[in-house]
Amino acid sequence: MNERESYRSPFCTRYAGKEMQYLFSDTYKFRTWRRLWIALARAEHTLGLPVTEEQIAEMEAHRDDINFEVAEAREKEVRHDVMSHVYAYGKQCPKAEPIIHLGATSCYVGDNTDVIILREASRLILKKAAQVVRQLRSFALEYRDLPTLAYTHLQPAQLTTVGKRATLWMYELVQDITELEHRVDTLLLLGSKGTTGTQASFMELFDGDEEKVKRLEELIADEMDFPGCVPVSGQTYSRKVDAYFLSCLSGFAQSAYKFANDMRLLQSFEEVEEPFEKSQIGSSAMPYKRNPMRCERICALARYVITDAVNPAVTAATQWFERTLDDSANRRIAVAEAFLGVDAILNLYINVTEHPVVYPGVIARRVMEKLPFMATENIMMRCVKAGGDRQALHEALRVHSQAAAERVKREGKENDLIARIAADPLFGLTEEEIRAVLDPRLYTGRAASQTEEFCRETVDPLLARYPDVVGATVNV
Asked: Which residue, of 93, 110, 189, 410, has the fewest CB within 10 Å?
């Protein structure tokens, strides 16, 4: 059976990037196991156990050249993945073989590796999310003063600007980045806790010397570049850690969904579109169509990640005492696919925000169709200042607005509200005087300055933490 005759995850064939796929690969996993075994051996040597520098050097020499065939053959016999890889490593390191995995339980390599993958995968997510923010920042500043219709209940309400709307998308991502940064910054290794978390095996190795047992974890954490190890645990690290991280990933999915859904609506309005390539086909039946396929894919993947985040929460809630194994199969799918899913989402998000297409003419036309209604309050205030009766003016504007709206909706004609007001002596205004009030820039409030302030005070400090994000093109 070749690869096209068996199931292959779409995350690997269509969606997620190679960097993220590598972090969840067997190669990265088992190389990390070996790094942890080396860290354990080095710490044990430092603290006086019979582990030699020669043994450690031998382990270092074979850290990355995993003999997978040997491990896989051994696992068929013993049905234990960790001991199979201990055996395979020992075959490459005959001098070190007696001390590999000394004092440890399976979760020493399994769980500590999972923590390391959580950290590295999160760093990749943060880097890509920062690139999206950088691109949205450029977009927001470019269009910070371009008036556009703003909506409540998907009904035209007042005006905002195209750039100000982009700050809403950015701010949600900024919150997601901040939350995930916190999780990464406070993430701790499991350490060397032993079978039930009591470190009993290491107490035996070190003849009851608690300070050496504690120092062992400090040395391992330092070598793996962590601030420390969890203070207490059963055999595993708390599965709430997975729940925390996938909750963060769900946040990224929610933010991306909001952006993509807005873009799908804007593309329907023909105001803003995702990039459309020269030879791209929008529909097999309708040649003229330009479907928002990238944003639709973002939404599809986001729904998957949002629902997937429930998995680790249930797993965390159902652990028994110091450990149970009903977490393993679920975690290896749920955690990996959440990261692969968000990676795919951010690749699409980067692609869409690199060169979004804006149609100022369409935006202006749609603004001017609704602006006469939105300008009625300003018109009323101007007439009141000239001595008019506010209540009478309000009633007249209500009647004229309803009549103009009826003409637009039922008869398909142009909005003639301005002409109606000019013809009403109650207002005492000419059509030219009224049209002078219809400058869209008068109705966007602080949108432009809010955009500039947000970029300067919130976005720029965040991007300063990611100086290496240079805006690489992502092909999807």
From this structure: 410
